[in-house]
Automatic annotation (TrEMBL):
<dbReference type="Pfam" id="PF15943">
    <property type="entry name" value="YdaS_toxin"/>
</dbReference>
<dbReference type="GO" id="GO:0003677">
    <property type="term" value="F:DNA binding"/>
</dbReference>
<keyword id="KW-0238">DNA-binding</keyword>
<dbReference type="InterPro" id="IPR031856">
    <property type="entry name" value="YdaS_toxin-like"/>
</dbReference>
<protein>
    <submittedName>
        <fullName>DNA-binding transcriptional regulator YdaS, prophage-encoded, Cro superfamily</fullName>
    </submittedName>
</protein>
<dbReference type="InterPro" id="IPR010982">
    <property type="entry name" value="Lambda_DNA-bd_dom_sf"/>
</dbReference>
Amino acid sequence: MNIPEDMKGAFEQAIKKAGGQSALARKLSTPAKKVSQQRLWHWFQVKGVCPAEWVLQVEEITGVSRYSLRPDVFGEEPADVSAA
């Protein structure tokens, strides 16, 4: 599977904004669902993208847009309709 570099780059940016893999994993973890640094490493290094089920949480934590993280799922970023 060939992952577009822009999606991997957006995921890398989110990891950096969160303070690294361990920090992002801690911020994503809940009592019901734990995310380890190893799992996050696997998402980034092996899969190359943030899993779609976690994109909204990653966006909330880091400010990196869901449209950058997974344009294959969320499509292109919509134009700002409030500016019209």
